[in-house]
Amino acid sequence: MYVALRNRAVYVERQVPFDIYFEGDLVGRHRADLLVERRVVVEVKATHTLQEGAKRQLLNYVTALNLDLGLLLHFGPRAHHYRVLGKRRPNEQITNPLTSG
Length: 101
Known about the structure:
alpha+beta; five-stranded mixed sheet; Lambda Exonuclease, Chain A; 2 helices; disordered C terminus
């Protein structure tokens, strides 16, 4: 998917690290599978069954990255996709430790 998007001149980053904060304190560090145009987080799962927390994980990523949309693509025996809508906070930008500072 990364290669297909990149070959179509879509700005896409993979394995994007980001921090999770709670009440101003760093509580964790995660990696998003794909970040497309810095607007959509995409999580890709290739398992027989989708784990219970996969949708919740995507919602947490969308919230932590301050995005409006996340996609969960499950490539199992029966492919599925799920869309998660976030509530973007105005005047906040995504901070990526790889590119900031």
